[in-house]
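Listing S7. Sequence submitted for prediction.
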Amino acid sequence: MSTLHLMRTSAYQQNDLTQCLDLLQANDAIVLLDDGCYNLSHHLLTANISNPIYHINEHAIARAMLDQKKISQAITLAELPALFFTFDKVITWQ
């Protein structure tokens, strides 16, 4: 069963990212949105994670976060609902 993990919090403030990564399965993906975009520079995500990682481009820009290591794919907020239908379930980390 595949899961789309919506990460709305910063790993610099809370441990949601650590918990998410502990539950991450091979067919899962992560979307960084809101303050979750700060995780684009966090060492937990810049390590070699083979799962797809997306970030909401508008949210990353608003937080002056650039995906310098190219760990994720930028998507728009309008593209997010389409991802919901490609996974069996969605978990929001907030």
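Caption to Listing S7: primary sequence and predicted structure tokens for the chain studied. The helical segments are 16-23, 43-46, 57-62, 80-84. The mean pLDDT is 94.
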